Amino acid sequence: MTSEPAVPEIVPARAERTEGGIMPLVDHLTELRNRIVWSVVAIAVGSVIGFLVSEQAIVVLAQPLPTNQPLVTFGVGDAFAIRLRISVVIGIILAMPVILWHIWRFIAPGLTASERRAILPWIPAALAMFSIGVVIAYIILPFAAQFLLSFQTEELVPLLSAREYFDFVSTLFLAFGILMEFPILLVGLSRVGIVTSQRLSRSRRYIVLGIAVFSAIATPGGDLVSPTVLGFTLYGLFELTILVIRRSGR
Q1: What is the mean pLDDT of residues 81-103?
Q2: Which of 71, 104, 129, 205 could be bridged to 180 by S-S, CB 3.0 to 4.6 A?
Q3: How far is CA 124 from the centre of its chain?
């Protein structure tokens, strides 16, 4: 009596996620979409709050300028566009805790339990570094503005565009806040074994060059103060990060 060949059992794709711990690509994309949607909702809520305080924010951000040089608008919608841009920047700053949380929730399933325990404490540090970056940008804003205005003469009298000035300010704030996440990224990569302190030390010249290039590109306005302060700050944090990684034994 001949036995019939066994028919392999077909396991649904959903079972792969629960039994094997592997998430299918479709679920990855769905998860990413949900995280992005919630982050956008948080930015929208923060932007509404930002719009309510945008008038006061404009007064504060315009203080570094001389009182005899008012900001002017050239279009019917410029004033609204300026308040909207400032509102979005404030919204991103207020929503940063939510954004970082959803970034963590997206990458955490792909890490081991020990990697999650090692990286989780650095999420609040990432928020702190972003906040420090924004504060540094606010501190150097008067010096950057004074540097750029110091080149005016009797023949070169600036007529300051409000839209260009607040574009400069908002980009400066976001650039400092986002680039200050650089050390946190390096620490996270070291925790999962991608980089080591020795590898970072060997790559120091290339990283310094990258810091200089990114500092010049990310800071608008063409002044020397902003990229110089940002570059030296990032380099100092880079050296401090190497020490932290080395002390952790990596």
Answers
A1: 88
A2: 129
A3: 14
CB count in 10 Å sphere of residue 57 = 18
Residue 54: in which H helix or E strand, if any? Answer: helix 54-61
Per the CB < 8 A criterion, the answer to whether 92 and 58 are in contact is no
* 99 contacts 39 by C-beta, under 8 angstroms: yes
Residue 137 · residue 229 · CB < 8 Å: no
Is 238 domain-assigned?
yes
Task: Identify whether 4 is part of a domain.
Answer: no
Q: Does residue 225 lie within any of the structural domains? A: yes
Q: How confident is the model at residue 222 (pLDDT cuts 50, 70, 90)?
A: low
Calculate the average pLDDT of the chain. 78
Structural domain harbouring 197:
13-247
pLDDT in tens, 120-131: 777 788 888 888
* CA dist., res. 18 & res. 26, Å (int): 15
Query: Which is more confidently placed, 92 or 75?
Result: 92
- What is the DSSP code (8-state) at residue 204? H
